[in-house]
């Protein structure tokens, strides 16, 4: 801790603070002085925080410092309870809280300056989602995010240039080299002017060159305007294409619809919008206002300790106990008429909640539909720009996709059938060929054997007889089996029917009794359910009333506590001001002249005397200037005339020199002709 305080004192005694503290004087600072010192350090990091804390409330000071420390990512040590103690210590100016904050800030002042500077531009402004539904707000938000990203990139480039930039010696050498080059160019320009002045009509040539340069600049500007107009024409064509697509869609919708359906849709939309305007949105606005009011109250109040939380929890338990007692009394004094009304109220509340839920679902579906419509328009415009052909509508595209899918499935199915048939055909063809070869070989062998025995054709006749006899025997067996099976089946069915009748007779009697019992139980269950619903509705209404009462008591308690805190702070401020006034009166009434000079009245008196003396001197000086103004103006006019006279003499001298040079050149040219 001693090293920490020593480091803080050393940093505060250096630039730019120059506080001239030592360990004893720094440790003897009061809470208000410590808060002012912390505010000065934060003001050095961010100039917006360079304020006098005596001109603002303690809550505003704590809120301002906490916001900046949060932006600078300062993490106070400890748990959540320690965080509440940290906020309380920051409000009261505790040394245990402010000393670590000063040590952390003074360790990394340059880094924190950069972070505070970046926070001015990179802390994103959160826009509610319902405001982003407006196209103008959405466009501005998008531009805001793009500018933020551009600022990030530029800052990175700036930092890289600072790291990899040239040294001051190199920059000075470059500046000296450019100055030398500038002097050389000035000399060359002077030489060229002298050469040009000897040429005839040089003024006209210079004018023509100037006009040429102007025309070139104009040509460049016209080319740029042409390019801009081309881009505007392209964007206009895209907008026209989108408008044509929308027109076709609207025409298609109008062509497919009837006036009755359109009126029905309009009525539904009007009912939905009226519900939103009259019921849903005002309720949401009121709930948002209430939540904002509670949040403002929470922010305005100081941080709560664990003891406060325990007290509130005990009060909540007492209120819950009272609520349970009231519910029991309500159940004892239950009346059927009230239960009916409560049941109806409960049903109405359930229906209203369902209605709100469905309205929210419908609103979300509409928002999703609008976003999808925008995306579809964007994609259609892109497709139209790439291909240049007409873009299909949604229904046409769905029909096309369904047709394409059906054709694709039909094609795949037929292709599989063809492949299976082709494979089976190849196998059967090969099998047929092998069997034919074997059959031909066996027939040849059999014919050869029959020819040897002298009974050719016997095998064919024998096969036919065997085939006919086999068919006849099979038919006889099938007929006999069918008759036997039918007789056995009839016997079995009759036996099964008698068995089932005998077995189902007691079950049917029992089922009749159970049906009667079920009807009685169902009737009793309906009566019990009605009683349960009425009881639940009554308890719900009592609970809601008690909740409202508890909320009102909590609000009243919070308001009284806030008033107490505010009065306490005002009392503290008045005590401080009273102490300052007493010190001022003590200093002013003191017999010691040194002590009296420290009084604010004496200081302001000296300042007023100094300002009066200064005003007197300035008035004397003004009088002297007014008296000498006319003679000075005449002298200045004579100097201007003298300057014009000298310029005329210089021009005449230069013209005489030019004429002498031209005559000398002409004489030299004549001598050269004589020599030739």
From TrEMBL:
<keyword id="KW-0744">Spermatogenesis</keyword>
<keyword id="KW-0597">Phosphoprotein</keyword>
<dbReference type="InterPro" id="IPR043016">
    <property type="entry name" value="IFT81_N_sf"/>
</dbReference>
<dbReference type="GO" id="GO:0030154">
    <property type="term" value="P:cell differentiation"/>
</dbReference>
<keyword id="KW-0007">Acetylation</keyword>
<dbReference type="GO" id="GO:0060271">
    <property type="term" value="P:cilium assembly"/>
</dbReference>
<keyword id="KW-0966">Cell projection</keyword>
<dbReference type="Pfam" id="PF18383">
    <property type="entry name" value="IFT81_CH"/>
</dbReference>
<dbReference type="GO" id="GO:0015631">
    <property type="term" value="F:tubulin binding"/>
</dbReference>
<keyword id="KW-0206">Cytoskeleton</keyword>
<keyword id="KW-0175">Coiled coil</keyword>
<dbReference type="InterPro" id="IPR029600">
    <property type="entry name" value="IFT81"/>
</dbReference>
<dbReference type="GO" id="GO:0036064">
    <property type="term" value="C:ciliary basal body"/>
</dbReference>
<keyword id="KW-0969">Cilium</keyword>
<dbReference type="GO" id="GO:0042073">
    <property type="term" value="P:intraciliary transport"/>
</dbReference>
<dbReference type="GO" id="GO:0030992">
    <property type="term" value="C:intraciliary transport particle B"/>
</dbReference>
<dbReference type="GO" id="GO:0007283">
    <property type="term" value="P:spermatogenesis"/>
</dbReference>
<feature type="coiled-coil region">
    <location>
        <begin position="309"/>
        <end position="382"/>
    </location>
</feature>
<keyword id="KW-0963">Cytoplasm</keyword>
<keyword id="KW-0970">Cilium biogenesis/degradation</keyword>
<dbReference type="InterPro" id="IPR041146">
    <property type="entry name" value="IFT81_CH"/>
</dbReference>
<feature type="domain" description="IFT81 calponin homology">
    <location>
        <begin position="3"/>
        <end position="126"/>
    </location>
</feature>
<feature type="coiled-coil region">
    <location>
        <begin position="137"/>
        <end position="246"/>
    </location>
</feature>
<feature type="coiled-coil region">
    <location>
        <begin position="504"/>
        <end position="584"/>
    </location>
</feature>
<comment type="function">
    <text>Component of the intraflagellar transport (IFT) complex B: together with IFT74, forms a tubulin-binding module that specifically mediates transport of tubulin within the cilium. Binds tubulin via its CH (calponin-homology)-like region. Required for ciliogenesis. Required for proper regulation of SHH signaling. Plays an important role during spermatogenesis by modulating the assembly and elongation of the sperm flagella.</text>
</comment>
<protein>
    <recommendedName>
        <fullName>Intraflagellar transport protein 81 homolog</fullName>
    </recommendedName>
</protein>
<comment type="similarity">
    <text>Belongs to the IFT81 family.</text>
</comment>
<keyword id="KW-0221">Differentiation</keyword>
């Amino acid at each position: 801790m001693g090293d920490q305080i020593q480091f803080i004192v050393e940093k505060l005694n250096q630039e730019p603070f120059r506080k001239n503290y030592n360990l004893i004087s720094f440790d003897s600072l009061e809470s208000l002085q410590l808060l002012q010192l912390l505010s000065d350090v934060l003001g050095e990091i961010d100039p917006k925080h360079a304020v006098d804390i005596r001109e603002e409330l303690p809550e505003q000071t704590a809120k301002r410092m906490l916001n900046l420390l949060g932006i600078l990512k300062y993490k106070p040590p400890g748990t959540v309870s320690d965080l509440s103690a940290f906020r309380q210590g920051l409000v009261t100016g505790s040394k245990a809280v402010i000393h670590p904050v000063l040590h952390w800030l003074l360790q990394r002042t340059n880094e924190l300056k950069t972070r505070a500077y970046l926070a001015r531009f990179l802390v994103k402004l959160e826009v509610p989602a319902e405001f982003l539904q407006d196209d103008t707000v959405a466009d501005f938000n998008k531009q805001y995010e793009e500018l933020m990203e551009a600022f990030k990139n530029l800052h990175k480039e700036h930092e890289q240039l600072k790291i990899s930039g040239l040294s001051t010696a190199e920059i000075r050498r470059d500046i000296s080299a450019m100055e030398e080059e500038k002097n050389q160019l000035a000399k060359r320009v002077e030489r060229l002017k002298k050469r040009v002045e000897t040429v005839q009509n040089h003024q006209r040539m210079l004018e023509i060159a100037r006009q040429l340069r102007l025309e070139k600049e104009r040509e460049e500007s016209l080319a740029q305007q042409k390019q801009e107009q081309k881009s505007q024409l392209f964007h206009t064509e895209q907008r026209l294409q989108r408008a044509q697509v929308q027109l076709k869609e609207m025409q298609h919708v109008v062509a497919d619809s009837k006036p009755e359906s359109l009126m029905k849709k309009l009525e539904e939309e009007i009912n939905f919008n009226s519900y939103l305007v009259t019921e849903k949105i005002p309720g949401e606005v009121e709930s948002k206002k209430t939540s904002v009011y509670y949040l403002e109250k929470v922010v305005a109040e100081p941080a709560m300790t664990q003891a406060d939380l325990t007290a509130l929890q005990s009060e909540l338990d007492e209120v819950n106990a009272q609520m349970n007692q009231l519910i029991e009394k309500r159940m004892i004094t239950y009346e059927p008429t009230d239960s009916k009304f409560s049941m109806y109220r409960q049903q109405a509340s359930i229906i209203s909640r369902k209605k709100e839920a469905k309205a929210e679902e419908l609103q979300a579906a509409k928002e999703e539909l609008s976003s999808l419509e925008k995306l579809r328009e964007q994609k259609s415009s892109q497709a139209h720009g790439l291909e240049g052909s007409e873009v299909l509508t949604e229904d046409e595209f769905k029909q096309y996709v369904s047709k394409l899918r059906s054709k694709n499935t039909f094609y795949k199915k037929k292709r599989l059938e063809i492949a299976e048939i082709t494979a089976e055909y190849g196998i059967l063809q090969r099998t047929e060929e092998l069997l034919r070869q074997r059959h031909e070989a066996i027939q040849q062998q059999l014919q050869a054997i029959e020819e040897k025995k002298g009974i050719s054709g016997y095998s064919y006749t024998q096969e036919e007889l065997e085939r006919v006899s086999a068919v006849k025997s099979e038919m006889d067996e099938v007929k006999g089996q069918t008759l036997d099976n039918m007789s056995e089946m009839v016997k079995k069915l009759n036996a099964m029917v008698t068995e089932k009748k005998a077995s189902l007779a007691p079950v049917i009697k029992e089922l009749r009794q159970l049906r009667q019992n079920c009807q009685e139980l169902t009737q009793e269950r309906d009566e019990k359910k009605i009683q349960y619903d009425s009881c639940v509705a009554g308890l719900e209404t009592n609970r809601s009333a008690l909740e409202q009462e508890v909320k009102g008591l909590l609000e009243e308690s919070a308001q009284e506590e806030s008033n107490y805190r505010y009065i306490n702070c005002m009392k503290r401020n008045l005590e401080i001001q009273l102490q300052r006034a007493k010190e001022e009166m003590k200093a002013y009434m003191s017999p010691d002249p040194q002590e009296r000079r420290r009084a604010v009245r004496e200081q302001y008196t000296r300042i007023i005397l100094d300002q009066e003396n200064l005003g007197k001197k300035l008035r004397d000086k003004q009088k002297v200037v007014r008296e000498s103004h006319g003679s000075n103006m005449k002298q200045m006019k004579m100097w201007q005339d003298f300057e014009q006279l000298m310029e005329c003499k210089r021009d005449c001298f230069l013209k005489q020199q030019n004429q002498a040079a031209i005559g000398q050149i002409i004489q030299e040219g004549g001598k050269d002709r004589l020599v030739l």
